[in-house]
Prior knowledge:
Blueprint: H1 2-24, H2 30-40, H3 43-49, H4 55-63, H5 72-85, H6 92-106, H7 115-139, H8 144-172, H9 188-197, H10 201-207, H11 214-223, H12 231-249, H13 255-267, H14 278-302
Helix pairs in contact: 1-2, 1-4, 1-5, 1-7, 1-8, 1-9, 2-8, 5-6, 6-7, 8-12, 8-14, 9-11, 13-14
Amino acid sequence: MWLGRYIERAENLARLLSVTEGFAAGDDDEAAWRSVLDTFQDEPAFKKARPKLTGINVVRWYFTDKSNPNSIISALAGARENARALRHISPIESWKHINMLYAEVADLKARQVTLPKLNQLCERVRLSCMTHQGLVDGTWYRDEAWLFHRLGSELERADQTTRLLDVKYYQLKSAGADDDAGFVPPDIVWWNSLLRSASSYHAFRRRHSLSAGPTEAAAFLLFDSDCPRSVKLSALAAADRLRELQHDYGAAPSKALTRASKDLLALLQPDGPVKPGKSLHAYLDEVQVKLNDFASALAARYFNPD
Length: 306
């Protein structure tokens, strides 16, 4: 399961850094980059590792710093170790690809990670992670290992999509604002960029007209069950994997896991609060809590039964 989570995490971290750089428009100051730290609640850890909050320090800490457990290199290292443990049951193509991707990022020197080169580096990571998912779907035997890999990927994707959406909360928040009235109205260009960063722009345009705005974009990434990166589709797919585990392998989910899955899906209804602002931020927090409950119940049932 963690192989899938780590690969998905690395891909989405690359998405998050890329979209933040786009919104910062080359700005290297604290205000433009604090949102990434806030999204992962990493500011205290960052301050211990880096003397100053600047864009380049944030980017390097999240890209190549092995001391940061939330960095791309740490996620790829975790994926590589999990892939090594699965070498006896996974195709050689999968192992070789992860090994090469890890080596490519590990070989990067800090001075090679710059803001002008960031989009190119992030695109390389994103495409390589997507290639891994294609290798898994195209070469892995459809047994329990494949099911748990998909479960991990789906849970991580749902979690990271909520974090990508939540970046807007921090970037719109006015100083001292404590309600939705204190938020700057979002512009459609920002949300178009966000949809592109989630590889969902063209899918969104197939469902919505050109006049659709930020509220529709947020709802699309949350609730559209045909959008590959939506939170709802990931939750539905995870529930399907649980049914497959029960039907094909007699590994029924526990009552706690079944309840966690139902609670998550109940929360992902299209009438949820999607107005960009504090209401959306609070809602995303609630979704993340439900995702954590699901992951904890999953681990308790299948990996830590004691």
